[in-house]
From TrEMBL:
PANTHER family, sorted: AMINOALKYLPHOSPHONATE N-ACETYLTRANSFERASE-RELATED, AMINOALKYLPHOSPHONATE N-ACETYLTRANSFERASE-RELATED-RELATED
Protein name in the entry: Acetyltransferase
UniProt keyword annotation of Transferase present: yes
Gene3D superfamilies xrefs: 3.40.630.30
Keyword Transferase found: yes
Annotated source species: Xanthobacter flavus
Length: 165
């Protein structure tokens, strides 16, 4: 398995990241969301221009394994993980960890004292293991369905290397 490299988002990445976004939702969230919910969620990438603008509006990093795009993270306002998605074949290989590590490091370096995320039910355990604490449960309307997620927060301090108890 190749090492994971991170680089800044480029406008030309948008179609690839939209495809990765859709694939991750379709293939990785089935235990937590039904088909209607997955389709409504994935449809957020249907407007290619709006999806590209969302990526460009944040500090977006792309993870590569070899020459293959393996995931991406978008850090909004240096304080919120707006999107963190990993290619289905890269799930469980450290790509999400590398992306999240980078987002936390950048947020802290840019003066943020905490980082928030609206974690899907699929990603909830990942963020909890990283020390993010649930703040509020949400039901988000999308198309003709509802998706559950959880607002989470992690304080970025000297001792943010692991979970808080």
């Amino acid at each position: 398995m190749s090492a994971i490299a991170l680089r800044p988002y480029l406008p030309a990445d948008a179609p690839l990241l939209a495809a990765l976004f859709r694939a991750a939702i379709a293939e990785l969230t089935g235990e937590d969301y039904d088909t209607e919910q997955q389709e409504a969620w994935a449809a957020k990438a249907d407007d290619a221009e709006a999806f590209a603008a969302r990526l460009a509006a944040s500090l977006t990093l792309v993870a590569l394994r070899g020459k293959e795009v393996a995931g991406f993270v978008s850090l909004k306002d240096n304080a919120h993980i707006d999107m963190l998605y990993v290619a289905p074949d890269a799930a469980g290989t450290g790509v999400a960890k590398a992306l999240c590590d980078a987002a936390e490091t950048l947020a802290k370096a840019r003066g943020s004292r905490k980082l928030t995320v609206d974690a899907s039910d699929t990603a909830l355990g990942f963020f909890q293991k990283r020390g993010y604490e649930p703040q509020r449960r949400n039901m988000v309307p999308l198309a003709d369905t509802w998706l559950a997620n959880t607002d989470m927060e992690k304080k970025l301090g000297e001792d943010d290397a692991g979970p808080r108890h």
